[in-house]
Amino acid sequence: MDASFRLRTLKPKDLSEVAALLCRCFYPQEGWQSWFNPIMQMGIFHDLQSRYSVRLMPFTSLIGAQIARESSVESELVGTVEVSLKSLSPWMPFAPSVPYISNLAVAPQCRCQGVGKQLLFACEEMVRQWGHHRLYLHVMDDNTPARRLYAKAGYQLIDSPPSWPNILFASPKRLLLCKRL
């Protein structure tokens, strides 16, 4: 397909499509666990809806929309990301908030085409405009393609604390990465 993509901010009409993309990217699509996907997608939709409607702090959600070269009409969602200010410590509600990337997802058929990199760079530019000089994110240690993307973009590991789910269920570790802008 001879197409490109452009970035824009999320609109209310995009919420359902973004929820579907996040569910496709972060939850199993086969086997018995996939039976829960409609419930997960509904939960993601409501979570996005609440974050979109109540913006008490800097928050931006971007999407990459694929467009045909011959026209400017968008044809499909190819990626999404959120950037906001949040505390890195859920147990310390008064800890300082820092710029944080979450829910970076690229449609499987559009990976390795620069969508993720463009979304990352757009977040970095936004954070600079907010007056911050560092940007944080978490990634699972078994997500090799995402870790490669972040390393190439200059993100460095700053913490990988063990957690009870890691220990009890031998699940992947959650790594905290940071980039100095």
UniProtKB/TrEMBL annotation:
Report the residue ranges that make up the N-acetyltransferase domain in this protein: 5-181
Q: Name one GO molecular function term.
A: acyltransferase activity, transferring groups other than amino-acyl groups
On whether Mitochondrion is a keyword of this UniProt record, the answer is no
Give the keywords, sorted: Transferase
Q: Which domain of life is it from?
A: Bacteria
Query: Which SUPFAM superfamilies has this protein been placed in?
Result: Acyl-CoA N-acyltransferases (Nat) (SSF55729)
Q: PANTHER family per the record?
A: ACYL-COA N-ACYLTRANSFERASES (NAT) SUPERFAMILY PROTEIN, GCN5-RELATED N-ACETYLTRANSFERASE 5, CHLOROPLASTIC
Protein name (record): Acetyltransferase, gnat family
Upper taxonomic lineage: Bacteria, Bacillati, Cyanobacteriota, Cyanophyceae, Acaryochloridales
